From TrEMBL:
Cofactor: Zn(2+)
Glycoprotein as UniProt keyword: no
Cited Gene3D superfamilies: Medium-chain alcohol dehydrogenases, catalytic domain, NAD(P)-binding Rossmann-like Domain
Protein name in UniProt: Enoyl reductase (ER) domain-containing protein
Family per similarity comment: Belongs to the zinc-containing alcohol dehydrogenase family.
Stored SMART domains: PKS_ER
UniProt GO MF annotations: oxidoreductase activity, acting on the CH-OH group of donors, NAD or NADP as acceptor; zinc ion binding
SUPFAM superfamilies per UniProt: GroES-like, NAD(P)-binding Rossmann-fold domains
Keywords: Metal-binding, Oxidoreductase, Zinc
All residue ranges annotated as the Enoyl reductase (ER) domain in the record: 12-333
Zinc found in the keyword field: yes
Pfam families, per the entry: ADH_N, ADH_zinc_N
Organism annotation: Absidia repens
InterPro entries in alphabetical order: ADH-like_C (IPR013149), ADH-like_N (IPR013154), ADH_Zn_CS (IPR002328), CAD-like (IPR047109), ER (IPR020843), GroES-like_sf (IPR011032), NAD(P)-bd_dom_sf (IPR036291)
Length: 343
């Protein structure tokens, strides 16, 4: 049976998209066809905004429309999503250890750039797709697929105790979810932001304290400032790292999630003197995404979203909101859907 895929693709003109269709002759044994209900916009999508012919988006959720001959874990009508890790070999040491994300043959977003989330439907590997809990609406589930997985995995892989003190830098799509996850982890949570206008919302998302990073320049600030076991940086800004490192407790960790534009210049002495650490973290493998979905459903964690229609214009507006840092806090394309009996 032939399926027609209806996608939005980049045109090579900054911020402009067009519709494109392609035919899929037959599903591979492990593939599923998904009708997309909602698809979030992540700042990582903006990196490809001037590349021509790319179908972007890695926060889609929808309903299964058809399944391949070997698919065991999904049926037609199931409510599912997919994320940043699109495939791995399933047999190498990393895959066998549960570190599928670090498989040497992994395929991560955007893959070949033809089969992603800004699309009315998509054909994906069922083994890298996820059942979405029924109590999470599509517009809220979409942003969990990347933003939620990434910050959950950052916290999970940091082996945080509930007594830990956590600073979340950058209150955007990832950051506002990180405040919610860290609060439910039981931690003491501080939002660190450049935007005074986000203070009240940051507190409502679960921050116990708010710091405006412009106060770093105030004399005596670092003597009085709270200190953190973990600082989770979700900005793509080239931060004054030495200042942030002053906010770590001994043995504290600085976690890089946002992608800076330049090489980082950091003073080594505090790392040696106080056994500090700095490491990076990439979205999440399959186990992390599953755990995240269960945790988010149990704790009613959901993004605050701006809804856009699932059209070329809707996507262009949503991308602009994300690219200009205006989104409060995640722009999401949302399909009108009449039958939600499966959700
Ligand atoms: N490691 C991973 O696996 C992974 C996964 C997803 C995304 N990312 C990356 O994480 C970053 C955040 O993504 P997002 O979708 O959350 O973005 P976003 O919604 O645009 O949020 C980024 C936030 O960073 C803060 N910011 C302050 N100054 C900035 C500056 N000069 N440049 C950039 N940001 C600044 C802003 O928060 P305030 O107003 O509070 O200061 C802004 O809301 C991006 O670099 C993205 O590519 C990484
Ligand atoms: Zn992303
Ligand atoms: Zn592998």
């Amino acid at each position: 049976m032939t399926f027609e895929i209806n996608a939005f693709v980049t045109t090579g003109v900054h911020g402009k998209f067009k519709e494109a269709t392609r035919q899929v002759e037959e599903l591979d044994p492990y593939e599923i066809l998904i009708n997309v209900l909602a698809s979030g916009i992540c700042h990582t999508d903006c990196r490809y905004i001037e590349t021509e012919g790319m179908n972007l988006g890695h926060e889609p959720v929808g309903l299964v429309e058809a399944i391949g001959s070997s698919v065991k874990n999904f049926s037609k009508g199931d409510y599912v999503g997919f994320s940043y890790l699109q495939s791995s070999c399933l047999t190498c040491d990393q895959c066998c250890a549960g570190d599928d994300l670090y498989c040497e043959n992994r395929v991560c977003y955007p893959g070949k750039g033809v089969n992603n989330g800004f699309s009315k439907n998509a054909v994906v590997d069922s083994r890298f797709s996820y059942h979405i809990p029924a109590n999470i609406e599509p517009k809220y589930a979409g942003p969990l697929m990347c933003a939620g997985s990434t910050v959950f995995n950052g916290l999970y892989s940091s082996n945080l105790s509930p007594t830990a003190s956590v600073g979340i830098v950058g209150i955007g799509g990832l950051g506002h979810l990180a405040l919610q996850f860290a609060n439910k982890w039981g931690c003491h949570v501080t939002a660190i932001s450049t935007s005074a206008s986000k203070k009240e919302e940051a507190l409502s998302f679960g921050a116990h304290e708010y710091i405006n990073s412009s106060d770093f320049g105030t004399p005596g600030f670092f003597e009085k400032a709270p200190k953190f076991d973990l600082i989770l940086n979700t900005t793509s800004a080239d931060l004054p790292y030495d200042d942030y490192i002053k906010l770590l407790k001994p043995k504290g960790q600085f976690l890089l999630i946002g992608v800076p534009t330049k090489s980082m210049d950091v003073n080594a002495f505090p790392f040696i003197g106080y056994e500090l650490g700095m490491r990076g973290s990439l979205v999440g493998g399959r186990r992390a995404v599953r755990l995240m979905l269960e945790f988010a459903a149990r704790h009613n964690i959901k993004p605050q979203v701006e809804e856009y229609p699932f059209t070329v214009k809707g996507l262009e507006d949503a991308m602009e909101s994300c690219e200009t840092y205006k989104a409060r806090y995640r722009a999401v394309l949302v399909q009108d859907h009449k039958d939600d009996s499966k959700l």
